[in-house]
Amino acid sequence: MPADNNDNKVETVTRLPASAPAFHADDTEPVAEYRSVSALAIASLVFGMASPLCLAWPLLLVIPLVGTAISIFALRRIDTSDGALAGRWAATAALALCVFSGTAAVTRDLGTRYIRTWQAEKLGREWIELLLAGETEKAFQLTVAGNRREPPIVEPGMPAPTETPYELFLDDPVVSALTKAGERSEIQRAETLIYEPQPRRQFIIQQEFAIAPRASADQSPQHPIEAILTLQRSHLAGERQPRWLVRTYEASPQNHEAAHVH
What we know:
Blueprint: H1 5-8, E1 36-37, H2 39-50, H3 62-79, E2 85-86, H4 88-132, H5 136-141, H6 165-171, H7 173-181, E3 186-198, E4 202-212, E5 225-234, E6 243-251, H8 253-261
Parallel strand pairs: 1-2
Antiparallel strand pairs: 3-4, 4-5, 5-6
Helix pairs in contact: 2-3, 2-4, 3-4
């Protein structure tokens, strides 16, 4: 019996390449969100990176102050932008740099002011105590005039001084008043009037001292002596370390008022 022809046929299947899936507009695809960086955040970061300069020069303290204001304003703008602005990390970093640098500069300046003022007052008290004890030569050596190695400059047309610097020192009204007050007198008060930092770590500080002479049993109490000392910290010629000296000394205006009343 003849075989079925269908059994001898080889089934061939043609495979067509798979077509790419069609893109439909309504398909949900993840879309990356792009946000612009806040210009204020970038500006605040520039101020933050420059803020440590205030540690080198006190006048540059304006940099962290302005940077702090810009950083805070940038953070507020970013918060109210509903995610349209980026740069929070930059504004936050700038704010931290500005606050740290400004705080460090102010703390250092306050510490330096306290130390220098204390050093100046210490010298002023020592100088006054030497005069109260009658040790005028030692007191003169603590003045700028007592450490001047060159003779005083005489202006053209002016006569040359007939007294030595030390004799002029003894004739000064403040020096004479303190010498006559005696070592039993007491320094009651010291008040800083002027504090002026100078280049090369030099300082000029003006302080007012109140000295109360102690009257003896047969004398009535005397009015306190008000003396204003200008103290200077500077390098002297031939010396490596700076030191404090009494630059000028004068009677307080209150002394003249009290003398007029009495």
